[in-house]
């Protein structure tokens, strides 16, 4: 699993790579920052100011892809088209920057072994990189979300899902990811690694619930492009000056996008926001659910399965974080989901589904 993660590249090398392949102003290596990532390396980059009338240089993110995804040119074609589509829909996200030395419309550049600080790469291993525009703002994980702001997040996710029903690409249709809730049952073997008997039984019950209540109804769910990772670090916000303290500025990291069932993005976002408040996750996320339901129409089967889908994603988050601990014990980005996902999952399973559905229906009628 670790061989999928790209080796580290020094800031000096990143600066050289970007300035060699893109039309950018000089870059100060000391200002480059390594951002968190799951299987890729993300480097924040800012141009140096060379114009006294311009107070700041342009900002970018240079992404070094893992070796698995680096092999597929169709993957990057699909992602670039998706990012441009999202922006044409008025939903801000990063955009790929055209390199100067590759054909127009192609956005990746090959990365040489000599660029890497780590030299364990096999000779036939290839990594690719590409430069993205920077979406301003901070992750919503770093701010205190008021009910009004939570409603706006749900509103954004609802509009996002509605728009992405219009997007399709053959590669994303054929792409398989175990994180796709459509394939949730494929994750069941991980339960064998749970050592506490009571916990193992809890996770087995989640798979039974999915098998009995969700799987038979998947055919009735709407289809579209699904971001697949709408967590609190991939939704960004900025402060406004007109009295409204926070506003969503965009969405980032579309690397896990697939063509699947549109309701999954709503369920995933609800699950992640629930992990932000483990003491009262249901009450805390009611404005979010309200904004989502008022902007993305769920049919009876989709709404009836929403509870099970949230539960499934919580279980999935825990199981993969648990599995990753043995491979990368120091990866805090993965490990932090262990406690929160477990706590919220237990609480949600102890709450009757009928009560949760009723709370969500009532929240839909409220104003926040």
Structure at a glance:
This protein is an alpha+beta fold. The protein has helices at 11-21, 67-70, 73-88, 147-164, 170-174, 197-214, 263-274, 281-284, 286-293, 300-327, 332-335, 337-349, 353-364, and strands at 33-35, 41-46, 59-64, 109-111, 127-133, 138-139, 223-226, 235-238, 247-251, 258-261.
Describe this structure in words.
It is built from 13 helices and ten strands. It has 368 residues and is α+β, with helices and mostly antiparallel strands. It folds into two domains: 132 residues, Phosphorylase Kinase, domain 1 (2-Layer Sandwich); 227 residues, Aminoglycoside 3'-phosphotransferase, Chain: A, domain 2. The strands form three sheets. The protein has a five-stranded antiparallel beta sheet with strand order 1-2-3-5-4, with helices on one face. The chain has a three-stranded antiparallel beta sheet with strand order 6-8-9, with helices on one face. It has a two-stranded antiparallel ribbon with strand order 7-10. The mean pLDDT is 90.
SSE-based structural type = alpha+beta
Spatial order of the strands forming the largest sheet = 1-2-3-5-4
User: What value does the Rg take, in angstroms?
Assistant: 21 Å
Strand content: 5-15%
Number of strands: 10
Here the CATH topology of the largest domain equals Aminoglycoside 3'-phosphotransferase, Chain: A, domain 2
CATH class identity of the largest domain: Alpha Beta
């Amino acid at each position: 699993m670790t061989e999928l993660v790209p080796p580290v590249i020094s800031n000096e090398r990143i600066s050289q790579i970007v300035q060699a392949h893109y039309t950018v102003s000089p870059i100060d290596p000391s200002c480059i920052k390594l951002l968190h990532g799951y299987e890729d390396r993300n480097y924040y980059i800012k141009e140096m100011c060379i114009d006294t009338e311009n107070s700041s240089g342009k900002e970018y993110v240079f992404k070094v892809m893992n070796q698995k995804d680096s092999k597929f040119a169709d993957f990057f074609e699909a992602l670039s088209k998706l990012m441009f589509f999202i922006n044409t829909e008025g939903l801000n996200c990063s955009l790929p920057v055209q390199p100067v030395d590759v054909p127009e419309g192609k956005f990746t550049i090959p990365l040489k072994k000599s660029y890497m600080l780590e030299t364990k790469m096999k000779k036939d291993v290839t990594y690719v990189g590409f430069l993205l525009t920077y979406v301003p703002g901070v992750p919503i994980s770093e701010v205190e979300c008021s009910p009004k702001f939570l409603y706006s997040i749900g509103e954004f996710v609802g509009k996002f899902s509605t728009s992405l029903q219009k997007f399709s690409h053959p590669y994303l249709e054929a792409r398989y990811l175990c994180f796709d809730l459509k394939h949730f049952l494929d994750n069941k073997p991980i339960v064998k690694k749970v050592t506490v008997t009571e916990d193992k039984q809890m996770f087995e019950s989640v798979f039974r619930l999915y098998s009995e209540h969700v799987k038979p109804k998947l055919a009735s769910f709407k289809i579209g492009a699904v971001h697949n990772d709408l967590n609190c670090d991939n939704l960004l916000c900025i402060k406004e000056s007109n009295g409204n303290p926070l506003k969503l500025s965009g969405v980032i990291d579309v690397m896990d996008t697939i063509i699947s069932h549109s309701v999954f993005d709503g369920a995933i976002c609800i699950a992640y926001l629930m992990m932000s408040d483990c003491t009262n996750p249901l009450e805390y996320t009611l404005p979010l659910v309200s904004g989502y339901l008022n902007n993305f129409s769920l049919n009876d089967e989709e709404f009836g399965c929403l509870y099970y889908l949230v539960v499934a994603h919580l279980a999935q988050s825990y199981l993969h974080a648990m599995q990753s601990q043995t491979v990368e014990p120091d990866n805090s980005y993965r490990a932090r989901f262990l406690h929160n996902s477990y706590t919220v999952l237990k609480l949600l399973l102890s709450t009757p589904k009928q009560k949760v559905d009723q709370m969500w229906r009532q929240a839909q009628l409220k104003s926040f």
